[in-house]
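ok trying this again, last paste got cut off
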Amino acid sequence: MKDTSGTNRQLLEEISILKQRIRELEESEAGRRRSEEALKEAGDSLRACLENAPDGVYMMDTEGNFLYGNRRSEEIIGYRREELTGKNFLEMNLLSEASFFKAAELFEASREGRPTGPDEIELVSKDGRFVPVEISTSVVQYMGRTVVIGFVRDITNRKRAAQEILVEKEKLRTLLDNAPFGMLLIDRKSRVVYMNTHFRNLFGYDMSDVPDIVTWYRRAYPDTTYRNMVTAAAREDLQGANPGARKSRVFSVTCKDGTDKVVSLVVSVLASGEYLMSCEDITEMRRLESQLRHAQKMESIGTLAGGIAHDFNNILSALMGYASLMQMKMEKDSSLRPYLDQVLSASRKAADLTQSLLAFSRKQPVTLLPLDVNSTIGSTKKLLKRLLTEDVDLHTTLTRDDTVVMADRSQVDQILFNLVTNARDAMPRGGTLTIRTDIADIDDRFIRVHGFGRPGRYVMITISDTGEGMDEATQRKIFDPFFTTKETGKGTGLGLATVYGIVKQHDGYITVQSEPGRGSAFRIYLPVVQAKTDREEEAAVPLSVGTGTILIAEDNEEVRRFMREALQEYGYRTIEAVDGEDAIEKFRQHRDVDLVIVDSVMPKKNGREVYEEMHRMDPRVRVLFTSGYTKDVILEKGIEGREIDFIAKPLTLDRLLQKVREIVHKPHGNEGGKSQ
């Protein structure tokens, strides 16, 4: 009988080993299943990540055939992945014409195993839209094969935003370049990084001229002392200044062409630490301010001159009046008559001086009377010579034709004085000044050639010199108020402007002809009239005895006494009043007054107030205004809509009596209207 115990043990051992192996296999299978589940889970997670990635992800082989594309890829190009899988990207018309060759170059780099990107290309979506994208690629091994993995980012919004930023920047640049002031941007290293068009036009510099602020200071402020003052002020303003701080100063800046401009500079500190300097040219504003101050000064002087002339006319009224009375009562062959004639002659010259003062103060109206231009030039020639230096020769060539015009004598004198003075200043080294008169016929042909005029005969006054002359630009401005080519303080710029205004007031014309280095010629055209001169007309009216009662309202005792004695001498009865209220009371007491002579400026009540009060008491009252000013001043004080009679001081015996007789002896209903 065989021994089976050993066999059984062996069998049991094999069974045990088999069970152990089975357990190991079961454990291995369980591990494999767990690994597969883990891999599946990881794959699902990776797939979920890829599918939900914000950028497109695609995979293709080294031939360019699509193997995979995530959901975002579909959204970007509009194709479903099934439509692309297995197809070559170069054959799908996915690339714009501009990006085709670039994409081909990038793919060739990927085939060589080189990563690319990010690179910007333009795709064409399924619906034909151009889609700007940014692509990056990597070459990897996948399931035993080489593949290209690409990442696609849609940059449409970024491109749109960048374009909008460019548009806004262009708008801003346009605004800055068209700003009415210059702008300069300076970085933290003191370099000039921006300069607008107005800045370049204002100063003539460009960025190559002033690359940094140091160069700007050196060129804009060439004077070392002034430059040091400017830089010290800038340091004081900006040292420790916080963003948003603004400092303003006014400096004189030298331009590239060497001219100087007064500029208002405002420096602003930006949040970036940069400085923005804005500049405004205020040269013209400062010039106008200076002109305004000058005009105000001239107005003050004019007011003072007018007041002096008014008071002086009162003195001259008494002086000339009493001298006339003496002359009237003196024997014709008296040895004292020549002396008295000299007194009257000097008084008349003084009266002319007061009229000039009134003209200067603009209280002298234009009184147009027949005036012989040749006689006026002849009588003023000596005075004109006194205006000239010894090295200037004065020549006059006067036509023999009739040169009578309607003009104001004092205004014509002023034309001559201003033009002669202007010619003298144009000949600092001497020369020749010529005054010439001619008769000019202005017809349609003349008007077409010259561009001005009314048909008729004119006296043409030509004042020419051999001086420095003027260019065309200067000629266009010479009649502008305050324009002058003279040094500061040596000219007001009013001389030729005044001439122009006077000529226009006389319905005349003025031209200028000049060339640099060849002198200048001014031609004035005044209409010819056929009339006797004012002096001839005055001489034709003889003095005669009158009758009537005259109320004299005058606060100046000497003038009042002269009028009283002169009027009484020629048959008039007089009543005197020392001020406005006294005049009204005397008029109330004496209702038989034929004429009231009233000074326009008196204490208590002025001439206008006296007239209004008397007019209420008797609308037929006759009033003769007198003043050291003029009729214009009376009108300014409020007597409008009514014709008034007026006689200007200084009074002379013949003018006073002639005016009184004219008013007293005319019938009621024809009051007023003339002035002397």
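PB: full thing came through this time. Residues 5-51 form the longest helix (47 residues).
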